[in-house]
Every structure is written in C-alpha cells, then in structure tokens.
C-alpha cells in the first residue's frame, strides 16, 4: 500500500485578521491531486485538524468536504485529534464517517469498526450506468477493521496495522485507562503508546500520534506541549507518523519517526518549504512531496513610509509583517500601509523618544505571553510542567 502522511491543518486559523480558509482549500485540493497521481490508499492526518477546540462552522464545513474529497477513489482517510482539537466535537459525525471509510480518531478503542461501508449499488441496465456502478464498487476497495489501539487497513491480501493515539492530555489519559500517578507523565505516555501497539504483527506497522518529541534534554516545550524523549516510541513500529512540529523533521531512525510538518506556513519564523510524506509499505520507503499551495509569510524591515510601501509592493503576493524603526508615522501613512493587500502586521521596534523598544503581543501564543509574565513577576523561567498545565487550562477555558 501507499500512505500519505500529513498533519497540522489548523483549519480556521487566521494570521492576525487574514482568514486563510481559501488557502487551506487549495492545500486539500493539492493533497487530493497528489493522492491521485501517487495512487494513495490511506491518508493519515496526524492531529490539529482545527486551530481551536470550538471551530467556526466554515472551518467544520471545509473539514467535512475535505475528508470526503480525500476519500474518493477508494482511499481510507484517518484524522487524529491533536492538542488543538476537541475530540468529541471532531468525532460528532463518526457514524457517517465510518461508512465512507473515514476514521475520526479521538479515543483508543476502535473495535466498533468492522469493515462496513455503504452498500454496493445495483447496476442499472444502461452501459453508462454499468460503468458508474463498477466505478463505485471499485471505490470500496480499502476496508478498515478496528480494535483496541487502532485499525487494520486491508487491500486485497495486503494488511497495514495503524495504531492511533490522539494527543495524550491528562484528561484523555484518565478516560483511556486508570492512571497510576506515582508514575510520571512521560512514563504513562510511553505505556499508552506501547498498549496501543500491542496488536502489531508481521505486517507493516504504523504508529500515528501527536506529540512533541525532542532529541535534546534541554528542550522544554513547544506550543504548550512538554518535550518528550524519543525512547518512549515502541520499536515494533515500522514508521511513526507524527504531528505538532510545523516543519518536516526526521526525529529518529529507529523506529523511523517523522514530522510531516504543516501544509501551510503559519508563522513568520517557519520554513517556507512545505511537504507531505509518502510511505510505500512494500518498498519500505518514505518520500517527500513538496507542496506549493498557499501564500508565503514575509517579515521585512523599514525605517520610513516610502520604504514600507516599496516593500509591500515588492512582496505583493505574500503576507507581509513590517518591523518599523523610523520616525513616527502619521495617521494617513499608517492607514495607507494597512490598506495595502499584502499588509498583515506592523511592529514598531523603536521610537525617537529615547529609542524605547516597543513590542506587540497580539501575535504571541498563550505560552509565550505566560513566559513574559512569569519572567516579569518572578524573575525566573517557568518550568515546562507549569507552562504545559497553563496552556492546557487556557485551551479548556476557550472551549467552555
């Protein structure tokens, strides 16, 4: 089989006030085209389907249409809940999704899935109708069978085992199994991953999960997620499809574990090169396919009004953030800059009054703002555990 691995769609995410749903639709279209050209059997989306736990109706509409598009031509689609997703809301359409070969993965037990799909149509008498019916039957070629820990995808005599572990927040861990709080969080996550992979056998085995893994012991957190060591991954997996990090990254070779990265550039400091991974289970290879949909994010410097307008014209096809260090702009000049189609943000880095640094916070994440507050209040860095708990509480508050 051939499997496409992507992650971190963040449907509904805005860049300041710029909505990006149109770009996200372009990305889904390109993913579908790649799936057709590469003859993909299974599409894996490794978490952070939405940007918030309570997405807009427009973002949900794009999601449902997207997974139906990706599921065409008999492909199975698996969408996993990340730390940005509310698994209950994301899985609300699960009974209908199951019939389309779409797995909405928000828990650990998938034993209710038994390969059932929509009934094959009765071929009508006309030749054109016969062709349509045969095409429809062909579209049911990938069967999904569930069990505790994940699913098995079948195509003829081929089988691929896929363990599915959504982002293991404390609240989710406590629902999945009774927790021994004498054991630290890292060890409990390791046990959860191991338990989910117990059904692995001599077929090709994939673990799909949403975690922040780090090779460095000094890494603390990213986006509110605690850094976890790579040795928590079970060696029984042939490939680990990861979500959360927004750039393509091979985090370890044994087991082979990779972040596909986000399909769009969502922050100014992210890499512009975006891609998806194609896994060939027969050849046991992993190949990158570059994505071209969506606008680039460009940060540039300027120290006067004319230079601001010149930079906006030069990067007219991008979203542009200007770091401004010149004399104070007039109201009319500021209005002209903000009205330019490429404008996205204006960060004033200095003024003539003593060259005082001015930093905007609107573009910062909850975790980054918490860092700033904690350093100001206690003159120290917050612990990774405290920051992770704060970020999770903020997400729960936003959901409520």
What Rg do the Cα atoms give? Answer: 23 Å
Sequence of strands across the biggest β-sheet:
7-8-9-10-15-17-16
- What is the general shape? globular
Q: Largest sheet, described in full?
A: 7 strands, mixed
Number of helical regions: 11
N/C terminus separation: 41 Å
State the low-pLDDT regions, or none: 119-124
Number of strands: 22
Beta content comes to 25-35%
Helix fraction, binned, reads 25-40%
The helix-and-strand class reads alpha/beta
Mean pLDDT: 87
CATH domain fold name of the largest domain: Purple Acid Phosphatase, chain A, domain 2
Specify the CATH homologous superfamily of the largest domain.
Answer: Metallo-dependent phosphatases
The CATH class assignment of the largest domain is: Alpha Beta
What's the architecture of the largest domain, going by CATH? Answer: 4-Layer Sandwich
Total domains: 2
Note down, in words, how this protein is organized.
The chain has helices spanning 21-37, 57-70, 87-90, 94-99, 127-138, 170-176, 185-196, 305-314, 331-339, 366-378, 384-399; strands at residues 2-6, 14-15, 18-19, 42-45, 76-80, 102-105, 143-147, 150-155, 158-165, 204-210, 213-214, 221-222, 225-226, 228-229, 239-243, 249-253, 256-259, 274-280, 285-291, 297-302, 319-324, 343-348. The model is unreliable at 119-124 (pLDDT under 50). With 400 residues, the chain is α/β, with parallel strands linked by helices. It has 2 domains: 2-291, 4-Layer Sandwich (Purple Acid Phosphatase, chain A, domain 2), CATH 3.60.21; 297-399, no CATH class. It is built from 11 helices and 22 strands.
């Amino acid at each position: 089989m051939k499997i496409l691995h992507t992650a971190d769609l963040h449907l509904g995410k805005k860049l300041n006030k710029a909505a990006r749903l149109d770009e996200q639709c372009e990305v889904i279209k390109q993913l579908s085209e790649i799936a057709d050209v590469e003859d993909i059997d299974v599409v894996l989306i490794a978490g952070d389907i939405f940007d918030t736990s309570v997405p807009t109706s427009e973002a949900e509409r794009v999601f449902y249409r997207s997974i139906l598009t990706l599921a065409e031509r008999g492909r199975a689609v698996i969408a996993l809940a990340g730390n940005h997703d509310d698994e209950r809301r994301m899985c609300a359409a699960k009974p209908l999704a199951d019939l389309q070969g779409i797995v909405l993965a928000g828990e650990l037990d998938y034993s209710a899935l038994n390969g059932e799909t929509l009934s094959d149509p009765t071929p009508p008498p006309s030749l054109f109708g016969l062709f349509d019916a045969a095409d429809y039957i062909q579209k049911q070629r990938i069967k999904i069978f569930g069990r505790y820990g994940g699913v098995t995808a079948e195509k003829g005599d081929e089988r691929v085992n896929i363990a599915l572990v959504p982002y293991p927040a404390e609240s989710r861990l406590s629902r999945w199994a009774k927790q021994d709080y004498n054991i630290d969080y890292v060890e409990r996550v390791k046990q959860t991953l191991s338990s989910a992979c117990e059904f692995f056998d001599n077929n090709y085995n994939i673990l799909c999960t949403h975690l922040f893994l780090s090779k460095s012991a000094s890494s603390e957190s990213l986006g509110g997620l605690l850094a976890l060591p790579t040795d928590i991954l079970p060696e029984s997996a042939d490939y680990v499809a990861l979500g959360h990090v927004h750039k393509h990254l091979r985090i370890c070779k044994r087991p082979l574990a990779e972040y596909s990265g986000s399909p769009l550039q969502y922050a100014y400091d992210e890499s512009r090169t975006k891609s998806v991974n194609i896994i060939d289970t027969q050849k046991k290879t992993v190949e990158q396919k570059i994505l071209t949909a969506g606008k680039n994010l460009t940060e540039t410097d300027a120290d006067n009004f004319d230079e601001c307008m010149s930079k906006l014209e030069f990067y007219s096809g991008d979203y542009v953030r200007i770091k401004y260090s010149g004399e104070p702009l007039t109201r009319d000049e500021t209005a002209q800059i903000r009205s330019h189609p490429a404008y996205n943000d204006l960060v004033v880095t200095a003024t003539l009054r003593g060259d005082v640094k001015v930093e905007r916070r609107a573009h910062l994440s909850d975790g980054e703002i918490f860092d700033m507050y904690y350093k100001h209040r206690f003159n120290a860095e917050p612990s990774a555990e405290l920051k992770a708990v704060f970020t999770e509480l903020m997400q729960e508050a936003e959901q409520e």
